[in-house]
Amino acid sequence: MSIAIFGLINFCHAQEYVNDFRDRLQFGLKAGINYSNVYDAKGEEFQAKAKTGLAFGLFTAIPIGKYLGFHPEILFSQKGFKATGKVLGGNYNFTRTTNFIDIPLLFALKPSPYFTLLAGPQYSYLLKQRDVFANATTSIAQEQEFENENIRKNILCFLGGFDVNVNHIVLSARVGWDITNNNGDGTSTTPRYKNMWYQATVGYRFYSN
Predict the structure, then answer these.
(1) Among 119, 180, 185, 203, which is disulfide-ready with 170 (CB 3.0 to 4.6 Å)?
(2) Residue 133 lies in a domain
(3) Quick check: is 78 in a domain?
(4) Per-residue pLDDT of the chain (209 residues; tens, 9 = 90+)
(5) Residue 139 CB contacts under 8 Å (≥ 6 apart), including other chains
(6) What is the dihedral of CA 193, 117, 73, 57, to 10 degrees?
């Protein structure tokens, strides 16, 4: 995969810079997948397996000169994990799927028209959680929906990655992880079980005149 990406970048650099839109406002749509898991911040015994989920939404690129920019996004993003174990001598499977509205606020470094480096904070709002517990004889599913009326109540995350830009197509790769829970009253807590995810998306962008 890395060889293909570098080959694409080299191909882009071989072209004339006739489509250099780094200093123009851009916006677009993107869709792809998350590959997510959770980890125990206390470092105790906790084993989970990664799961895949959907990621899609809107993005914009606001130039700050030619080489810098600000890239906010708003995405529907599925995360979660899978786990297996034993209880009363029997095997069980557990799957958690969490639906978030993610709002990345990314700062961009644009060394070429075809390659953009991005990093910055992300605010995630939990919409819904679905847990499924299954063993040899039973399967139990539980769903819980959340109302986020307080916009300050969110999970603060950090996100980094890059974009490969080919005309109107944007190929994006991201990695992110939770940092703290904002409780909405001016206080914050560090979650014990933190989400960590890899994200790959394909986008289509439009340019301002």
Answers:
(1) 203
(2) yes
(3) yes
(4) 556 555 555 555 544 445 788 999 999 999 999 999 988 877 666 678 899 999 999 999 999 999 999 999 999 999 999 887 666 667 778 898 999 999 999 999 999 999 999 999 999 999 999 988 887 677 788 888 887 778 788 999 999 999 999 989 999 999 999 999 888 888 888 888 899 999 999 999 998 77
(5) 132, 133
(6) -90
- Residue at token pair 């060394």: 111
Domain residues for the domain of 183 are 29-103+124-156+175-209
Establish if 205 belongs to a structural domain: yes
Number of domains in the chain: 1
**Residue 93 domain flag:** yes
CA angle 10, 170, 176 (to 5 degrees): 100
Neighbouring residues of 27: CB distance < 8 A, sequence distance ≥ 6: 58, 59, 60, 61, 205, 206
Residue 44 CA, distance from chain mean position? 26
- The answer to whether 61 touches 205, Cβ cutoff 8 Å, is yes
Q: How far apart are the C-alpha atoms of 167 and 20, rounded to whole Å?
A: 9
